[in-house]
Amino acid sequence: MKKLINTPDHLLHDALAGLAAAHGDILTVRFNPDLVVRNDAPVANKVALIAGGGAGHEPLHTGFVGRGMLDAACPGAIFTAPVPDQIFAATKSVHSGQGVLYLVKNYTGDTLNFEFAAEMAELADIEVATVLIHDDVAVQDSLYTAGRRGVGLTLLLEKIVGAAAEAGADLATCQQLAAQISAHGRSMGMALTSCTVPHHGKPTFELPADEFELGIGIHGEPGRQRAKMASAAAIAEQLALPIIADLPFQAGDEVLALVNGMGATPLIELYVMYNELRQILNGHGITITRRLVGNYITALDMAGCSFTLLKLDPQLTTLWDAPVCTPALRWGV
Amino acid sequence: MKKLINTPDHLLHDALAGLAAAHGDILTVRFNPDLVVRNDAPVANKVALIAGGGAGHEPLHTGFVGRGMLDAACPGAIFTAPVPDQIFAATKSVHSGQGVLYLVKNYTGDTLNFEFAAEMAELADIEVATVLIHDDVAVQDSLYTAGRRGVGLTLLLEKIVGAAAEAGADLATCQQLAAQISAHGRSMGMALTSCTVPHHGKPTFELPADEFELGIGIHGEPGRQRAKMASAAAIAEQLALPIIADLPFQAGDEVLALVNGMGATPLIELYVMYNELRQILNGHGITITRRLVGNYITALDMAGCSFTLLKLDPQLTTLWDAPVCTPALRWGV
Amino acid sequence: MHPGIALGCLIAETAMHITAQQILVFVGKAAHSIQTQRDYLTDLDAAIGDADHGINLDRGFSAVLIRLPDVADQDIGTILKTVGTTLVSTIGGASGPLYGTAFLRAGMTVAGRFTLSPEELVVALEAAMLGIQTRGKSMRGEKTMLDALAPAIDTLKATLASGDDLPIALCKSVNACETGMRSTIPMLATKGRASYLGERSIGHQDPGATSMFLLAQALLDTLDT
Amino acid sequence: MHPGIALGCLIAETAMHITAQQILVFVGKAAHSIQTQRDYLTDLDAAIGDADHGINLDRGFSAVLIRLPDVADQDIGTILKTVGTTLVSTIGGASGPLYGTAFLRAGMTVAGRFTLSPEELVVALEAAMLGIQTRGKSMRGEKTMLDALAPAIDTLKATLASGDDLPIALCKSVNACETGMRSTIPMLATKGRASYLGERSIGHQDPGATSMFLLAQALLDTLDT
Ligand SMILES: Nc1ncnc2c1ncn2[C@@H]1O[C@H](COP(=O)(O)OP(=O)(O)O)[C@@H](O)[C@H]1O
Ligand SMILES: Nc1ncnc2c1ncn2[C@@H]1O[C@H](COP(=O)(O)OP(=O)(O)O)[C@@H](O)[C@H]1O
Ligand SMILES: [Mg+2]
Ligand SMILES: [Mg+2]
Ligand SMILES: [Mg+2]
Ligand SMILES: [Mg+2]
User: Which intervals hold domain DhaK (chains A, B) (predicted)?
Assistant: First the structure.
């Protein structure tokens, strides 16, 4: 394992210290429990948004703390949901009396720890609501799974609900908006290589040189199946068609498209994938009216990509376009 | 070789098509010869800035076309300087009568092709000036080398001179400013892995699991030496100390720091490196007043990073802070 | 790196009660075993999860070891609840709340007690299991830690009912726990991260069932010395 | 993938002049050889450069092949200038302007000519070399294409002066070119990308010197058939 780290034990602390030093104008980092909090939190008369999850997905979530997006992020250990104490500490730091919305990716660990934290918040008389994000079409939401995973849609949801909260929407409205986004967004991902969890020291899985993993999540888990290596066009189809079929997206739809790298995929390849996605959607009469191309929701040093589509309406589009000022997403300011 | 591409022959075209589709609000892509041009070019009464170089360094340069930065970028084949025809076509597209400034990374191929293009522009009565960027302290500027390479400073120079041009600075002023930036900026890079040039199909060099390359450029070339794998802190020293010693940077200096990933390095590691750099500079009494952390000047899928330091003064800081609206760098708008 | 097989049930006659002191020893042994098997547990998790189960539990039990002296003279309920809250606030992931809840719920059934009868042990274990099931919305047969815990409790109850001494009963129970752990290999996962793999989860031993077996073994070791 | 060694100089007596037709054949053979040795050239460039030299030249010479029919009935100067401008506008990198300039400058010395005497060939080659030196600000001994070209010209001049026929002279010249190519192996690079490597450039054959040898060989092959 070759990584630019000191020791696996110090990785998260060092990275957070770097984040704090680099973006002290936007956010503050606190340690033990580890929290990243918007500098002006609690923001008066605003619903507070908290997201969290294992580290290793940077810039998610810590890079999305700031005006127009998250009030706080709770980074757990690498790929490990944060502990309730962290989430509760964040809750106390950011709530301004208008309620707190937990934005939770649907994994057993995340839901359980946020559940615990919500119980603690309830005892402390802080109003909390929770939204589960579960957009990964690679997983069937059935009795036979822990339900669909939360992946790429997370970023879009954080941005859009963040804009609504910033504009003064109340807790119920934010929650409803999140539910609407969940209902209209779908994702799917693939990997060319596994990642290496620092404490583990070796790749989580080994892929032959001529195969890729289809239907991966964002934790280096193997995907639903292995497939023979193929062209960007063919891979784009294998990602896009299940997404389109699932909602389904239909001719005439306007969508926000996220082409996301898994951490080690260079931008040049992501633009190739965006080009393929665009052509596939064109063929279905679906128009991309907003888009984002880059490494936003990563799995450490995994190579690969994911597609996320979110059906837009004028309200969502306006909220997407609203100013945002975070380390990793910034426009309008 | 596993990459998200169709064929090596189509990679650049597909990526440019993706860029065009994603950022049509900012730029236009033309093919044969390949150009990326700011939508509102030629901008009346403005010095036009053109940069170019081999592809494979994305977002450099194509991702930096737009208001407040480049008027045009000329992407050559992967790691291959663009041909004069491209540069000349770009020149004709963007010049508004106030002259054109070529921002050229100092490599034999780049200087020769821009030289050719400048000769063509001269014949066409377009005023052209050229600035060479050569910030890599890993290479000694001596009779025994092709001179220092242009690396990380390129992005900072494009941004700052871009802001000056946008504000109405004339050609001579822009050129002088570029020279000032060149005089006050230095870089150094390292690689954990080589990259794979798509047409070549295999890694340019092989690195043992316990070694890294120190003093690399941005084309997958081997570096000046191999070193035993070390902690982030130790690697940061090996990058920062030669930079500091070279200018030299001194106690009391205020600097802009760029911690740049080589394409396959996840953000979490770059923040660790930023944290180390900051501490080293602290120890030297040097203060980081502006910074950028991310994969900006890459070498395809190479893992590794580079540091760039630029000594700031109030004028440079103001120009750095000025609004910029490009695919890869955006603030103030 | 493979955890030892449970010993054959060749245990000498010993006391019929578990003391608070033994609970402390048990927790220490459990922490030690988790640390020793950290990489093995993580490797198991790499195959069908995200390669952190050993890392997670080791972080949690290391924190427990630091807290343990604070409750060295306390009752079993307090000890178990301290273990539980420490696990909850240091592990994270799925296993943190699940193991944490297990210890918390077990502790609640034995509040104020300095010794436990075999029957009280069974009640505590059943509370632990119910805690996991409730938090995890899970049951036996889903390829989780429950598949090691449930048969262990079943066997413990049956063999105690048939008149076995606690050490013998616990020995048989740990054997059942091991069998349960192994039974996860052919199972299709329907809970936790492994469920995302569908059919590909088959053929791998569940990391949580494995750590559960390590805990059971630690308890047996404690009574056995 | 290693380019063949230059043939021994066992060449039959042939004409003392080079025709425009032969120049076309030469360019075709050169393009073919570059294509065949594309990966070999790129591998050489991977060792001390950026792994694109074969890719670059193949792109350029493939474009030349497409342009060639347009000048099939033109004079040698026009043919060479067309090759030069095509290389300049399709290769890029260092080798594009350098090879392009070489063909352009050679072409300028033979404008309007349909045959070349050996002396005119020498003049054209010297102009080509001077073009590379001027553009590249380089000279012999810096581990570049010049280290193959310069000895080839020296030998060509000397052997012609000593009375050899053109085919014999060219054969000896190509041998010198090959020796020059190999002489780059122990050299320290002081120009181009390889110079960044410092001492680590030693021990590798220069890709540009190798492609220069392939061109020389193609010329010899042309006169030889
Ligand atoms: N719903 C559940 N009920 C019971 N046990 C579960 C459940 N989900 C997961 N587990 C157990 O947790 C283990 C994984 O723990 P760990 O790797 O630490 O957490 P994570 O899955 O969050 O990475 C699994 O091997 C399984 O035994
Ligand atoms: N200044 C120079 N003068 C002469 N030849 C040079 C010079 N610089 C580079 N070369 C030649 O160019 C070759 C590299 O060409 P190529 O790989 O196509 O370009 P690049 O270095 O831009 O990738 C080198 O092997 C060398 O022979
Ligand atoms: Mg985990
Ligand atoms: Mg090149
Ligand atoms: Mg796990
Ligand atoms: Mg090259």
Answer: 7-331
- Using CB atoms, pick whichever of A272, A295, A301 lies closest to residue B11: A272
C204 lines ligand 1 (CB under 6 A): no
Q: Map out the domains of chain A with their CATH numbers.
A: 10-184 (3.40.50.10440), 185-322 (3.30.1180.20)
Which domains, and CATH codes, for chain C?
A: 18-223 (1.25.40.340)
* Strand ranges for chain A from DSSP E: 27-30, 35-38, 48-55, 72-78, 100-105, 128-133, 185-191, 211-214, 225-228, 254-261, 287-294, 304-311, 324-325, 330-331
CB contact burial D20-45 (16+ within 10 A = b; e otherwise): bebbbbbbbbbbebbeebbbbbbbbb
Residues in CB range of A77: below 8 A, 6 or more apart: A12, A54, A55, C52, C55, C56, C59, C92, C93
pLDDT digits (tens, 9 = 90+) for D167-182: 999 999 999 999 999 9
Q: Which two tokens stand for residue A118?
A: 């919500």
Label residue C224 by pLDDT band (50, 70, 90).
Answer: confident
Cβ neighbours for B135, distance < 8 A, ≥ 6 positions apart: B148, B149, B150, B151, B152, B153, B154, B182, B185, B186, B187, B308
Three-state secondary-structure class, residue B30: strand
B326 interfaces chain A, CB cutoff of 8 Å: no
Is B331:B292 a contact under the CB 8 Å cutoff?
no
ipTM of predicted complex: 0.94
Instruction: List Cβ neighbours of C36 (8 Å cut-off, separation of 6 or more).
Output: none
Q: Please say whether the dihedral angle defined by the alpha carbons of residues C155, C160, C166 and C168, taken in this order, is positive or negative.
A: negative
Contacts of residue A315, defined as CB under 8 A and 6 or more positions apart, other chains included, come to none
With touching defined as 3+ CB pairs under 8 A, do chains B and D touch? yes
Q: Which two tokens stand for residue B191?
A: 């690689």
What are the backbone dihedrals phi and psi of residue C169, each rounded to the nearest 5 degrees, phi first?
Answer: -60, -40
Q: Report CA(D210)–ligand 3 centroid distance (Å).
A: 54
